[in-house]
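Limitations
The structure tokens in this dataset are predictions for the assembled complex, not deposited experimental models. Users should treat interface geometry with appropriate caution, especially where small molecules or nucleic acid strands are included. An illustrative entry is reproduced here so readers can see what is and is not provided.
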Amino acid sequence: DAKTTQPPSMDCAEGRAANLPCNHSTISGNEYVYWYRQIHSQGPQYIIHGLKNNETNEMASLIITEDRKSSTLILPHATLRDTAVYYCIARSPNQGGSEKLVFGKGTKLTVNP
Amino acid sequence: EAGVVQSPRYKIIEKKQPVAFWCNPISGHNTLYWYLQNLGQGPELLIRYENEEAVDDSQLPKDRFSAERLKGVDSTLKIQPAELGDSAVYLCASSLSSRSEAFFGQGTRLTVV
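Predicted assembly:
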């Protein structure tokens, strides 16, 4: 699995967009970018994933650069409940590939009132 | 729909004692994972099951850790004997297949004294 690099911490004002960056310069063509978050004392929660195209769901948007070497998770209107550690993971879905989720240390996002 | 259920939520034991954690995955999910999470770190995979078969247990310390998933549904993770360094959160996750997003339980926080 490709290694991902994230800033250790970020702050965001409540109601503003939170943009969380992730570098994955060694990602291979068949590796998806997954985002999970972990709120204090809870298990990780799936947010979104993508391969090449930008993706959006009810929780967030995922913007992947054309060269796929980096991506940004966007929480359009951050709330206090979005305070959590956000993990960016590169994952291969192919048969025989490593299908496990390899977590790094993630980004601690603090949403301030 | 019920999520991944783990029990107990918290466990305190003395070193050298045995301990067991139980996980009930989401109904219909064939893939089950056990992760270990140390304080301030991301989760690390211990073992992955496809139905009742352990297909990736390379990170499981087999001298003291064991796991089983009878009938391909519930799973139990055991430590015998526990050591001080085993204090951590043990997370269970499940997914429809190894290529689908994983859903995590709340975890069991183990403290070995």
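Some entries come with short summary sentences. For this one: Residues 33 and 104 of chain B are 9 Å apart (CA to CA).
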